[in-house]
Task: structure prediction
Amino acid sequence: MTVRLETTSRPAAKSLLAPPGMIPSLKRCLRTTLSSAGIEVRMASNLSGVDPLKDLKTLHNGSSLKTVIDIGANVGQSALRFHEAFPGSSIHSFEPVVTSFESGRSNTARYPAIEWHHLAVGNTTERIVFFSSGTSQMNSITNTQVPSTGHHGERNEVEVVRFDDFFTTRQLNHVDLLKTDTEGLDLAVLQGAEAALSGRHISFVLCEVGFVEADGGHSFFPPIAAYLEKFGYRLVGFYGMSNVRHFQQWGVTYADALFAMPHPDA
Result:
C-alpha cells in the first residue's frame, strides 16, 4: 500500500508544541512504523504512478482524450473506465472472441460513443480460426488447436486487420490513446500500427507487458520498449504490477506500461 502525502506552498507555521528538531524525528518514526506494517509513505507528485488514467489526464494537461482505441476489449471493462474518465471521447473496442464481443457490446449499449469491432488486430491481414475457453481474459487468437475431448471450447472465425489500415479507412486524424491487451501479441499489434506511430498520430500507448521472456501470455517488455523508442516514445511508468503471490506461484511478473510521445519542444 502506498500513502501519498500532499504538500502546499504555504510557509510552515512555527510549532508551539514541539521543540526544534522533534518534527523530523517524529516523521522518521512514523515512516518506520508504517513501513513495518507494509505501508509505503512517499511525497505526492504530479504523476501518481497508481492510476494510468489519472496520469493521462495530467500528461494531457487536464483535458479529455478525444479518440481511444481499446484492442483486446474483452467484455468492455476497460471501455467503461475510459468512458467514465473521458466522457467526451470516441472509443473503438476490438474483440475477436464472439461471446466476449457480444457481452461487451451489451454491457456498453447505453453509451453510443463506444463502438465495437469483431476483429483481431495484428501485423497481417488474414482470416483465422481459433478456440476460446471459459476464462475470457486469458483467451488468445493463437489457440488454433481443436480442444481435447471434454473441453468446451468455442470456435471463433475472425478477420485480422492492421491498425494502420483501420486508421486510414476510418479517416482518423489522431489517436490520443492506443491500449492493447492481447495475451502476448501486443508487439504484433504495434508493428501493425507502424505508420501511425512513426507519423506521431498516437499520443499514448498503454500496453500489458511481462518481464519473463518465457511467459507467452504476456508480451516481453524489452522488445516493446525498444520498438516504441524508435519512434520517440518514452516510458511513463508501470501500473497494476502482479502481486507477490502470483510471482511465487507462477514465476511471472506483469504490469501495464504507459508510454507517451513527448511534445516536440520537450
